[in-house]
From TrEMBL:
One of its GO terms (cellular component) is plasma membrane. It is a multi-pass membrane protein. This is Type II secretion system F family protein. The keyword Transport applies. Belongs to the GSP F family. It comes from the Bacteria. The lineage of its organism: Bacteria, Pseudomonadati, Pseudomonadota, Gammaproteobacteria, Lysobacterales. Residues 88-211, 292-414 form the Type II secretion system protein GspF domain. The chain crosses the membrane at residues 187-210, 241-259, 395-415. Signal peptide: none annotated.
Length: 422
């Protein structure tokens, strides 16, 4: 009961903290400095009075303080992307390595942020650090933007006195992970968009072009070949039921997404199916191994204990199947098994990965071996994605030819037949 009460209290506290940050408003100010020179700038605060007080504290005489107007199409920076966090990590690591105090570094980075939401988060984190909290404690208020892995690495860096080095490593890690995800998305985006355009063109032909040809064929009294009859029947169906077809397509996509979110079993099943697909499945396998190796290498190198590192790594693989396997590995390692033995039991990791992990454990250079594994599989993913793009081009041409080209040819078959009888 006490535990439940504590959890509820922490939840309310976290909610209040988030509400407090969302209440921060950006103000544009104009003030006179000690020389009487006109200065202007911007500041995030709860109200205009606090902005004026801060300006006076800095030795300036505030003239005007106005709330910045909201953009026409909503607030700027509605979400904080992983790329934003990577850039922030690189910036603060560079500043701290150059001797800039942490609080001042947060101030400088926040003032240059175009994403208002992230800017407010950085200001609030800075205020938490000024209040005596460590960086990882201040970041804990924002678990969505700074996940458990990120906070654990920061905590390890603070404990070892090498926070700037760890943050630089984190920035490199996030940049690499985003590069892998971006490349995979880019490879899949092109064929998906081509197929969507092909379907749209087919629907336009069926709804607007085929009916004109159908009327012409009826007026000419021509006997329609089988391909043309199929296209005409499809056109008649679409004219009567096009709303139903669109509703079924959209409903199927929404149902698939909702089922994946709400059903763990379905999400697990879908992930297993994706991993078994030809070409794409291999890319997903390699990507999950690369993420696992890179993430575990970074956390272990930062000084995080192996069991805790595996706990944080489970959610970073990008795969439910691999995530479950890493959690099982954590259980095995926690009772005394070697990491390489725990990896072998999952039957998911190639023998090369297991052997390199074993060498790393025996030589005391596990992090270095994991980095080598990550580099190898990141390169493999890059090559596989390039190969996928090459393989998909002829497949896309065939699909386009069947969908659009076949439909156009079937419409002209009766015309060719009529021309041959004349």
């Amino acid at each position: 009961m006490a535990t439940a009460t504590a959890i509820a209290k922490n939840t309310r506290t976290l909610g209040a903290q988030r509400a407090e940050v969302s209440a921060l408003t950006t103000y544009d100010w104009v003030a006179l400095d000690k020389r009487g020179k006109r200065m202007k700038g911007e500041m995030a605060a709860k109200n205009a009075s606090l902005v004026k007080a801060e300006l006076r504290r800095q030795g300036m005489n505030p003239q005007t303080v106005r709330e910045r107007g909201k953009p026409l199409f909503g607030a700027t920076g509605s979400s904080v992307k992983p790329r934003d966090v990577a850039i922030f990590s690189r910036q603060i690591a560079t500043m701290m390595a150059s001797g800039v105090p942490m609080v001042q570094a947060f101030d400088i980075i926040a003032s240059g942020q175009k994403n208002i939401r992230f800017k407010n988060i950085l200001i609030d984190v800075k205020q938490g650090i000024e209040g005596g909290a460590s960086m990882h404690e201040a970041l804990a208020k924002y678990p969505v933007q700074f996940d458990e892995l990120y906070r654990n690495l920061v905590h390890a860096g603070e404990s070892a006195g090498v926070l700037d080095t760890v943050l630089d490593t984190v920035a490199t890690y996030k940049e690499r992970m985003e590069a892998i995800k971006s490349k995979i998305k880019k490879a899949l985006f092109y064929p998906i968009m081509v197929l969507v355009v092909a379907l749209l063109v087919s629907m336009i032909l069926l709804l607007f072009v085929v009916p004109v040809f159908e009327k012409t064929f009826k007026d000419a009294g021509a006997e329609l070949p089988l391909p043309t009859q199929i296209v005409v029947s499809a056109s008649q169906f679409m004219q009567h039921w096009w709303l139903l077809v669109i509703a079924v397509i959209i409903g199927s996509v929404v149902a698939l997404v909702m089922a994946k979110k709400r059903s763990v079993k379905f999400a697990h099943f879908l992930d297993r199916v994706m991993l078994k697909l030809p070409v794409i499945g291999n890319i997903l396998h390699q990507s999950a191994i690369a993420r696992f190796a890179r993430t575990l290498g970074v956390t272990f190198h930062a000084g995080v204990p192996l069991v805790e590192a595996l706990d944080a790594v489970a959610g970073a693989t990008g795969s439910i199947v691999y995530g479950d396997a890493v959690r099982q590995m954590r259980e095995d390692v926690s009772v005394g098994h070697q990491l390489q033995l725990a990896m072998r039991q999952t039957a998911l990791f190639p023998n090369m990965v297991v052997q390199m992990t074993a060498i790393g454990e025996e030589s005391g250079a596990l992090d270095k071996m994991l980095f080598k594994v990550a580099e190898f599989y990141e390169e493999e993913v890059s090559n596989a994605v390039d190969t996928l793009s090459t393989l998909l081009e002829p497949i896309i041409m065939v699909i386009l030819g069947v969908l659009v080209g076949g439909m156009v040819i079937s419409l002209y078959l009766p015309i060719f037949k009529l021309a041959g009888t004349m």
